Amino acid sequence: MDFISQVGERQHVLVTEESFDAQYNVAHNKFYEQVLVPKKPEFKGKMIEVDIYETGKHFMKGQPVGDANVFTPSIAKPLEKGEVSGLIHEFSAVHQNGINGNAASSSAVLLQQSWRPDGVTVKVISVGLALLAVIVAYAMEKLG
Predict the structure, then answer these.
(1) Nearest-10 crossing angle of helices 87-96, 103-114
(2) How far apart are CA 136 and CA 144, in angstroms?
(3) End-of-domain residue from the set 26, 49, 64
(4) Do the bridges between strand 10-18 and strand 24-28 make them parallel or antiparallel, or are there none, so unpaired?
């Protein structure tokens, strides 16, 4: 790709993540071309307007226009690096229900709350385990 013709253009970009070298935030324009922008936490997950001032083989660098106000706010707060979607809300719900303790006990409580087998599920699991036991016994007999 040759981005040199885009130097001087003004583009709207969506800031999605931190760059590999942690010096910039990575954004993408409407063609999903990578644009590096200054690393500011308030940009993550937002659409900003930038002027393209430098290009490389696989990227462009953009300088936010003016005071770099957010162009289009995102619906939700962007995830922090390493954060997994949904976990924070589930754990906070467990703690709000009066269940406190370490992460292991919170995980056990979440598992108990999210999966409760009904009668049919218990029967299917029981039949599956019985079938597995028969297969293992048959295999042991043939091998032994």
Answers:
(1) 90
(2) 12
(3) 64
(4) antiparallel
Q: Hey, how many other C-beta atoms are within 10 angstroms of the C-beta on 37?
A: 21
Q: What pLDDT band is residue 3 in, cutting at 50, 70 and 90?
A: confident
69-86 confidence digits (pLDDT tens): 665 555 666 677 777 766
**In the structure, what pLDDT confidence band is assigned to residue 2 with cuts at 50, 70 and 90?**
low
- CA–CA distance from 80 to each of 18, 45, 90, 113 (Å)? 10, 11, 16, 26
Tell me what pLDDT residue 97 has: 52
Q: What is d(CA 4, CA 58) in angstroms, rounded to the nearest whole number?
A: 11
Residue 44 counted as domain residue: yes
Task: Give the tens place of pLDDT for each residue, 92-134.
Answer: 555 455 555 455 555 555 555 555 677 788 888 888 999 999 9
Provide CB contacts within 8 A for 43, sequence distance 6+.
15, 25, 27, 37, 64, 68, 70
Domain range holding 35? 4-64
Task: Assess if residue 73 is contained within a domain.
Answer: no
* CATH code for the domain in which residue 17 is found: 2.40.50.140
